[in-house]
Amino acid sequence: MKVRFDRETCIGMFQCVAEWDAFEEDEDEGKADLDGAEEVAPGIFEREVPEDAEFDAKFAARSCPVDAIEIYDEDGEQLV
């Protein structure tokens, strides 16, 4: 499972931070950061989701008010 985070879309509500500890607050920029992620395009970050964090990752994606977080399965199909 993979998470994709669009940092440009993020509005800094930090609901994702409350749901999954892979997200951190960047109060200076008013946006979240995805720990351990690789920038795959300008402002787009991806990382693998550990098996024991799948529920939290999905919940973080669902809690984002601007849909800046997407979850994909191993086949590349979007789950959230």
TrEMBL record:
<dbReference type="GO" id="GO:0046872">
    <property type="term" value="F:metal ion binding"/>
</dbReference>
<protein>
    <submittedName>
        <fullName>Ferredoxin (4Fe-4S)</fullName>
    </submittedName>
</protein>
<dbReference type="GO" id="GO:0051536">
    <property type="term" value="F:iron-sulfur cluster binding"/>
</dbReference>
<keyword id="KW-0249">Electron transport</keyword>
<keyword id="KW-0813">Transport</keyword>
<dbReference type="InterPro" id="IPR051269">
    <property type="entry name" value="Fe-S_cluster_ET"/>
</dbReference>
<keyword id="KW-0411">Iron-sulfur</keyword>
<keyword id="KW-0408">Iron</keyword>
<dbReference type="Pfam" id="PF13459">
    <property type="entry name" value="Fer4_15"/>
</dbReference>
<keyword id="KW-0479">Metal-binding</keyword>
